[in-house]
Each structure stands twice: as structure tokens, then as C-alpha cells.
């Protein structure tokens, strides 16, 4: 889609997040088509971008939701996701969250430990309800990705080992209040190689076969998310290659296949617009200071993540510059040694591939207001979250202020 960046920045102000809804639809359709001929649900990972309009757009396409808090479950339901397409995952669910999820009758709770299973059983007993569950299996496969987004190794906090999973399934199958309907694995995010996915799927599918052999009827096979996207020059996995290794692993099994794409759906649908305040040189080091900060987009600071950065409509010889924000931290940067032309006050800079883990990780650090969010669809733009105000930030504190 052709985007008039300057016009959008002028209309909505900066810093600003923009999401291309047509791109999101194309990504969903591509992945859903790759599962053609198989029973499947595409459970969008809400944590990647939890704007209600983004979730609602995917709900209309038929998506489910992968949620990691009761707040995300509520968002999914408010946005129109069918309750029987919602999974509640995460390593630390409180009793009140478990209770609400069971009362809302979502598809299943994804369990990460034996202790959690016992808590779910107790809550289900109190409610007099059966809890549909899946268990997150840790196949101990190296995902070959960034260590902070690796989740499938013994050293990670997620999931349980194969032997423990089997014991948990046997226990749950005998319980009056637990119904083990699914199995789950997720080895990491930003995966760019098929072999770890294939190996993990094979291991978990073999566990399903052994469970079915002892009359534990697993119905849902959840392969998690993690399909990598292009930020720089990554070679990524095609949707059809991805689904083929899953089909291969589950051959002969009657299962509904689930996957949990987040970044895959929205990362490259989004861009972050920020305005140049001024340039600064320190001993020959060039800085471009902008009005957006690490509180708006923390990935470069947190992960040293790369985002392509461009100046809009500015010509001239490009020289290296650090693009930095106003937050009072040395880690407040979007890119270092970025080739940029000479820039002036009010020039617009675009930080690309910012649709995933951008706004959802934003904060009010330095009492900075969170930016607005805008959707582009069918050539039209619309506001989907207004810019936060100071009053929004202090609303929950003012009544307790002693004067």
C-alpha cells in the first residue's frame, strides 16, 4: 500500500503507530490456505499486538486467539473471537484468572506445570465444572534463535518434559474435573529454520500416539507460533513448508491442528513514525534526536533488535547517525550508525516492522504518554487508539493524593 507518511503524521501527530490491515488479512489467508484439507484453527497470539481493532479484524477472518493473561482473554472476547477458539496459556495463572477462564468456557487452558494442573483441578472442583486442558510439552529442541525468545529448552521456564507430561496426562484423564483435550509446544520466536520445528513436532506427535494407545484422546495439536519474519535480510520459512512438516509429523492422527502466529501476522504490517527534533554532534559522533523513545518501542534497547529506519522525502548524502529519543537512559535508541541524510526539525523518520511487540510493550516511563494507533484499510486511514494524555496517566492516582 502506498502511504503518505507526512500526511498521516500531520493528521494524527507523532509518535505514531500505523498498521496495514490489508497486509494482516493477506498473512492470515496465506497461512490458513497452507492448512487446506486439514482441520485447523489459526490462534492469533494477542501479545504481539493487542489493539482491539486488530483482533476484531482477525476475528472477522475466522481467527482464534492465543492469550497469556485473563486481560487478553477479555480482549479476544470483546473483539468478537469465538470462545471455543480461545486458548489461555502462560506459566503463572492466578486462581481468579483460572476461575474466570473456566466460567467463560473457552476452548482450553494450556498448562505449564504439575502444580498448575493441581490448582486448575481445585478451581474446577470449586466451580463444579470440567476444565478442558492442554499441556505444554518442552521437547528440548534448540530453536536457533535469540536466547531471550527461546522457549523450548530445559533451561527455559516454559513447559514440562516428556515424562512429566505423560504422568500429567494420565492423572488428568483419571480426574473428574480435568479433561485433557490438547497438547502444545512452542520452541521459540522468530524461527527461520524448519529443522527445529520438524524435530519438535515429531517428538510431540509420538507422545500423542503413545497417549492414544492408552485411551487418552487428544483432539488438538498446537504447534505454537514463532514463524520468523524479515526485519533485515533474514531468509524465512514459507507457510506451505511450515505446514508440510506438521502434516508429516501428525500423519495418521485424527487431530485439529492449531498454530499461534503473532509476529508473523503483524510485524511487517506496522510502522512507527517519529519526528526529528534536532541533530547533535558530540566529538564527531552524529545523533538524530526524535520525539519517540524507548518507552514507545523498546525492542532495539531490550533485544538489540534491528529495525530498518528511513527518513521520509529527504535527499542528500547519507552519513551514519544514532537515532535516539528523549528518554533519560543511554539505552534510548532506535538504531545506531544508521545511514541518514542531513535532517531538520519536523522531518519524519519511519521505523519499519514495528507492528509486533511495539505498542504492546510500551510504557509510561518518564511520564511519557503512549502514542496513537492508526489502521490503514482499503486505502483509508482511521484512528484505532487515541493518543494518551497526562490525565489518562494520573487518573488512578489523583484520588489518593494527599494535599
Task: State the gist of this model.
Pathway: Amino-acid biosynthesis; L-lysine biosynthesis via DAP pathway; L-lysine from DL-2,6-diaminopimelate: step 1/1. This protein has 403 residues and is α/β, with parallel strands linked by helices. The chain contains 12 helices and 17 strands.
Q: What's the overall geometry?
A: globular
Please give the largest β-sheet. 9 strands, mixed
Arithmetic mean pLDDT: 94
**Into how many domains do the coordinates divide?**
2
Name of the top-level CATH class of the largest domain = Alpha Beta
Class by helix and strand content? Answer: alpha/beta
Report the sheet-strand fraction. Answer: 15-25%
- Percent of residues in helices comes to 25-40%
- The radius of gyration over CA amounts to 23 Å
Ends distance: 53 Å
The CATH architecture assignment of the largest domain turns out to be Alpha-Beta Barrel
Number of helical regions: 12
What is CATH's topology name of the largest domain?
TIM Barrel
Number of strands: 17
CATH superfamily assignment of the largest domain?
Alanine racemase
Amino acid at each position: 500500500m502506498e502511504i503518505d507518511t507526512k500526511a498521516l503524521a500531520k493528521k494524527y501527530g507523532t509518535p505514531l503507530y500505523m498498521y496495514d490491515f490489508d497486509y494482516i488479512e493477506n498473512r492470515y489467508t496465506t497461512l490458513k490456505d497452507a492448512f487446506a484439507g486439514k482441520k485447523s484453527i489459526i490462534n492469533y497470539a494477542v501479545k504481539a499486538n493487542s489493539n482491539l481493532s486488530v483482533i476484531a479484524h482477525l476475528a472477522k477472518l475466522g481467527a482464534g486467539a492465543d492469550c497469556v493473561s485473563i486481560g487478553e482473554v477479555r480482549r479476544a472476547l470483546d473483539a468478537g473471537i469465538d470462545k471455543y477458539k480461545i486458548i489461555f496459556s502462560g506459566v503463572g495463572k492466578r486462581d481468579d484468572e483460572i476461575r474466570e477462564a473456566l466460567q467463560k468456557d473457552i476452548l482450553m487452558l494450556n498448562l505449564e506445570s504439575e502444580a498448575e494442573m493441581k490448582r486448575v483441578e481445585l478451581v474446577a472442583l470449586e466451580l463444579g465444572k470440567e476444565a478442558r486442558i492442554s499441556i505444554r510439552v518442552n521437547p528440548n529442541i534448540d530453536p536457533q534463535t535469540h536466547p531471550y525468545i527461546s522457549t523450548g529448552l530445559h533451561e527455559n521456564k516454559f513447559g514440562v518434559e516428556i515424562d512429566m507430561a505423560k504422568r500429567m496426562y494420565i492423572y488428568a484423564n483419571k480426574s473428574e474435573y480435568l479433561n485433557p483435550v490438547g497438547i502444545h509446544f512452542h520452541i521459540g520466536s522468530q524461527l527461520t529454520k524448519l529443522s527445529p520445528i520438524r524435530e519438535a513436532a515429531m517428538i510431540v506427535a509420538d507422545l500423542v500416539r503413545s497417549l492414544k494407545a492408552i485411551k487418552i484422546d487428544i483432539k488438538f495439536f498446537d504447534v505454537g507460533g514463532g514463524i520468523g519474519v524479515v526485519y533485515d535480510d533474514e531468509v524465512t520459512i514459507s507457510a506451505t513448508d511450515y505446514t508440510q512438516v506438521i502434516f508429516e509429523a501428525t500423519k495418521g492422527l485424527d487431530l485439529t491442528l492449531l498454530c499461534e502466529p503473532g509476529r508473523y501476522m503483524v510485524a511487517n504490517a506496522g510502522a512507527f513514525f517519529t519526528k526529528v527534533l534536532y541533530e547533535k554532534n558530540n566529538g564527531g559522533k552524529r545523533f538524530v534526536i526524535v520525539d519517540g523513545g524507548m518507552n514507545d518501542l523498546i525492542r532495539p534497547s531490550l533485544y538489540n533488535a534491528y529495525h530498518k529506519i528511513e527518513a521520509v522525502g529527504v535527499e542528500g548524502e547519507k552519513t551514519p547517525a544514532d537515532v535516539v529519543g528523549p528518554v533519560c537512559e543511554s539505552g534510548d535508541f532506535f538504531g545506531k550508525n544508521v545511514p541518514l541524510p542531513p535532517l531538520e526539525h519536523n522531518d519524519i523518520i519511519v521505523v519499519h516492522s514495528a507492528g509486533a511487540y511495539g505498542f504492546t510493550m510500551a510504557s509510561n516511563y518518564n511520564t511519557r504518554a503512549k502514542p496513537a494507533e492508526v489502521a490503514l484499510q482499503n486505502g483509508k486511514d482511521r484512528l484505532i487508539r487515541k493518543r494518551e494524555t497526562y490525565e489518562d496517566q494520573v487518573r488512578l492516582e489523583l484520588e489518593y493524593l494527599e494535599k
